[in-house]
Specification:
alpha/beta, Arc Repressor Mutant, subunit A, Rossmann fold, 5-stranded parallel beta sheet, DNA-binding SARP family transcriptional activator, DNA-binding, DNA binding, AfsR-DnrI-RedD_regulator, BTAD
């Protein structure tokens, strides 16, 4: 990885290609690179960049300077041949798209986090690798206003952890010189002072260790008027008493040593989870959804950890989500295991607890508590001794144990696919290996499901296996295929859902009807008929019980088998509340994106919707909710809610006008048009024909657009609809090369338009047609009138179209200065708003102007960027872009179809 691109922030800020630093410019450019690299793959607002670079006191030309520095960095990245990184313009600023592991800060942080869960030797190696990334003071060579104090905190944390690991490995003498230098420079770093004392003590230099403490105490007293902290004072006492080495209490061999663990089952994978358990103390909680393998993991680990606990291992199945075992009963079981005769076990629970604590207080013992329901069920059973460890499994997070006992919590994830296949092979005895990968995927890599599937593969005759795989492949029968003697996946989920609070159980069933990949509080509120704040609370309760996962703020996802189970519980619950929510929310969002000409209005629908303050909020909502919206559309279509489907398709259509993408738009329009045909509503068919016509026009499919516009005009029911259809018909005629007819049709539409919105559209498209037949002066006149309307209505999406059309008309008229001015303004606005196709149009014009001026390098840059922008939304750039590319000697741009 490090042989390619590297971005260095831990030292002088620089870009490296291999081992070669790449010159990037002065402090301003370096500061910009640092600010973007600190947040890779995230948008950094232009205003935030300016504030950071000039400490909230920018010069008047700050925006121009930043734009120039961005261009400089882009040129550097291209010239260095580093395709691993690029700088994208993304409203409201810029985003550095790069693998975070190529930025030394994020690599150091990742190594530090990996080290926390690694065994000691590996931990030391990871921390040394992280520490080696520092090449000097952080963010060297940038303006003084650019600061990231968290980097100094990271440096201190990595160094301290690295030294702790080296001390644990016995590298005492090797550390003395390094730590001495730091302590002399920073005597208030108590952790480092303690590390130096340990290194000196274990190197046989006890007197020097005591002297280090005295110097630190003197510095704290004289400079701060404070005493040293309790940890350092305790360490001093141990050194003073010459007893710093750990004291291990002796083992009473006459005492019974309990070994209560149930048999272990084979594991596949889970190496990181096992390593985490190796390091946990004093309390660890393994949590996760039912069937994820919590008990199997902990029991398997505990068998291997027995030598670490010479005083025994206690185990209790608490059955917290079925019939919880009383604490008194578990205490009796533990006391018997510790050798207390049955007739001497006290009856009162308090006396049992006191005896249990007395017997375990001085021992090194492991207590495994399986399937706990709550922290209250666990607390009395925790061993009190400082050398003992308790490991708890639960379907809930048990946050209360973190508060009261400093418990560390680890949530299990489904197995990696290769481990799922290995587990299947282990259980199935190698039978029917050709099905293992497919079956693992259908089981969602859930260990319980994998063991059941493996058992069925092992037991079934060869001719029954294809039928079993077919059962798994069908969503209707998958859970039934994973049932075994009332102990299957459905039974495990039943236990979890029965254990939920009543309101959370109701919410689980309500969202079971939701077909989307992720559910949020607003749609959950609509489905559950509760306020948004209550829906949010209930969703988080479900997440705490691992029936949902909050994969991002207020974004809740489900394991595939949980989704199927929830759908069964939902039964015939209506999807209509979700449809109504998305109609209302999408209607709010589309009105922030574009001016609306259809009469659909969902403002009276009584569902809570997000507050979307402007274009950026609305666009972000559509990007996040698009997969859900399509899933709801398809679910509603399957349920026969045709009238709702076409309306939702129409309001969602606006997003694809602003962010055109052929496959997604085509899917949306097909659903809406099919629903319009099914409900037999002429108005529905009209508006869906208009939507499909707009899609065809966007992708230059004139003949198809002409057919739809003509059909729409034939069924238009009122003057506004007829005008709208005539505008689309004129655009289609123009796209087909019938420019004179287009102008006539569009001028009639402009005269008939009853609103500014329709008149502005008609004039803008009339300008397009006039431009196409070479009447540039007429085109400019129409376009200026349209631009005036666009600006008065405050619609940036139409403003940028008007600017591009003016630029092209001025180019045809031979007024290069006016063309450059309007094309530049169009590119700037389109880039700010993320209008990819309109930015491409403007850049093509700039490329043509550069070529006309003899600036071939500038022409290639602009035309290449236009082609790349087109490739993000359509399979192939339009003919005019391909022609310019060929004439400039540019290779064909790859199609990517990136979202948003």
């Amino acid at each position: 990885m490090l042989k390619g691109l590297r971005i260095q922030l831990l030292g002088p800020v620089q870009l490296c290609a291999g081992d070669r630093p790449v010159p990037i410019g002065g402090p301003g450019v370096r500061g910009l690179l640092a600010l973007l690299a600190l947040q890779p793959n995230r948008i950094v607002a232009l205003d935030d960049l300016i504030d950071a670079l000039w400490n909230h006191d920018p010069p008047p030309t700050a925006r121009t300077i930043v734009h120039g520095n961005v261009s400089q960095l882009r040129r550097v990245l291209r010239s260095a041949g580093t395709p691993e990184a690029r700088i994208d313009t993304a409203a409201p600023g810029y985003r550095l798209t790069v693998d975070p592991m190529l930025v030394d800060v994020h690599r150091a942080r990742a190594l530090f986090e990996r080290a926390e869960a690694a065994p000691l030797v590996e931990r030391a190696s990871l921390l040394r690798e992280a520490w080696a990334l520092w090449q000097g003071p952080e963010l060297g060579g940038v303006p003084e206003s650019v600061r990231a104090p968290e980097l100094a905190d990271l440096r201190i944390a990595v160094h301290g952890a690295r030294v702790d690991a080296d001390l644990a490995l016995g590298r005492h003498e090797e550390l003395i010189a390094e730590l001495t230098t730091i302590v002399r420079a920073e005597p208030r770093r108590e952790r480092t002072v303690g590390q130096l004392m340990r290194a000196l003590y274990h190197s046989g230099r006890r007197a020097d260790a005591l002297e280090v403490y005295r110097e630190a105490a003197r510095a704290a007293s004289e400079k701060l008027g404070l005493d040293l902290g309790p940890d350092l004072r305790a360490l001093h006492a141990h050194v003073l008493n010459d007893d710093l080495a750990p004291v291990v209490s002796g083992i009473d061999v006459s005492r019974v040593v309990p070994r209560q663990l149930p048999p272990a089952v084979p594991l596949a994978g889970r190496s990181a989870d096992l390593a985490w358990l190796d390091e946990v103390a004093p309390v660890g909680v393994i949590t996760g959804p039912p069937g994820i393998g919590k008990s199997a993991l902990v029991v398997s680990w505990a068998h291997g950890a027995v030598p670490r606990f010479p005083d025994g291992v206690l185990f209790a199945a608490l059955r917290g989500f079925e019939a919880p075992v009383p604490v008194a009963e578990v205490l009796a079981q533990f006391l018997l295991g510790l050798g207390v005769p049955a007739d001497e076990v006290p009856e009162p629970e308090g006396e049992r607890l006191a005896l249990y604590r007395s017997l375990t207080g001085g021992r090194r013992i492991l207590v495994v508590l399986d399937d706990a329901r709550s922290a209250d069920q666990v607390r009395p059973l925790l061993p009190p001794g400082p050398d003992s460890v308790a490991v708890v499994t639960s379907r809930a997070r048990l946050d209360g144990l973190t508060v009261s006992h400093g418990a560390r919590v680890r949530a299990l994830e489904p197995l990696a696919r290769r481990d799922s296949v290995r587990l299947l092979a282990d259980v199935a005895g190698g039978a029917f290996e050709e099905y293992h990968s497919q079956v693992a995927g259908l089981c969602g890599d859930l260990p319980l499901a994998l063991r059941i599937a493996g058992a069925r593969l092992a037991a079934g005759p060869a001719w029954t296996v294809p039928d079993f795989v077919a059962e798994l492949a069908s969503e209707r029968t998958r859970l039934a295929a994973l049932d075994v003697d009332d102990a299957g996946v459905r039974a495990a989920l039943d236990v979890s859902v029965r254990g939920l609070p009543a309101e959370a159980g109701a919410m689980f069933r309500a969202v079971g009807a939701f077909p989307g990949p992720a559910v949020g509080p607003f749609v959950a509120a609509a489905l559950g008929g509760v306020p948004v704040v209550e829906a949010r609370r209930r969703l988080r309760v479900l997440a705490a019980h691992h029936l949902l996962t909050e994969s991002a703020p207020e974004v809740f996802t489900r394991h595939e088998l949980v989704r199927l189970y929830a759908r069964e519980l939902a039964g015939s619950s209506s999807l209509r509340p979700a449809v109504r929510y998305y109609q209302a929310a999408a209607d709010v969002a589309r009105r922030r994106l574009l001016r609306i000409v259809d009469p659909l209005d969902f403002s009276s629908v009584e569902v809570p919707v997000p507050a979307l303050s402007g274009f950026d909020d609305a666009l972000a909502w559509f990007v996040a909710e698009w997969p859900n919206l399509l899933a709801v559309l398809e679910g509603a279509a399957a349920a026969g809610l045709h009238d709702d489907v076409w309306r939702l398709a129409r309001v969602a259509h606006t997003y694809r006008v602003v962010r055109p993408r052929w496959d997604e738009w085509q899917r949306l329009v097909a659903l809406g048009l099919a629903a319009a045909e099914a409900c037999g509503d002429a108005r529905a068919r009209f508006w869906m024909l208009i939507s499909r016509c707009a899609m065809f026009l966007t992708f230059d499919l004139g003949a198809d657009a002409l057919a739809d516009a003509s059909a729409a005009l034939a069924i238009a029911a009122d003057e506004g609809s007829r005008t709208c259809a005539m505008i689309h018909l004129g655009c289609a005629l123009n796209s087909c090369g019938r420019h004179d007819e287009a102008v006539e049709c569009l001028m009639r539409a402009a005269s008939a338009a009853g609103t500014d919105e329709l008149r502005g559209q008609a004039l803008a498209n009339c300008a397009e047609a006039e431009k196409a037949r070479g009447r540039y002066a007429e085109a400019i006149a129409h376009q200026l009138s349209s631009l005036e309307i666009d600006r008065r209505l405050g619609d940036d999406s139409y403003v940028v179209v008007s600017l591009n059309n003016l630029a092209e008309s001025y180019l045809g008229l031979g007024d290069d200065g006016a063309a450059w001015k309007h094309a530049s303004a169009a590119v700037e606005l389109a880039s700010l708003r993320g209008f990819l196709l309109q930015e491409a149009v403007g850049r093509l014009t700039l490329g043509r102007l550069s070529r006309r001026d003899g600036d071939l390098a500038g022409a290639r840059l602009q035309v290449g960027l236009a082609a790349e922008l087109h490739s993000r939304v359509s399979p192939r750039p339009p003919a005019e872009v391909l022609t310019e590319m060929a004439e400039l000697g540019l290779p064909a741009a790859p199609a990517r179809g990136d979202e948003g």
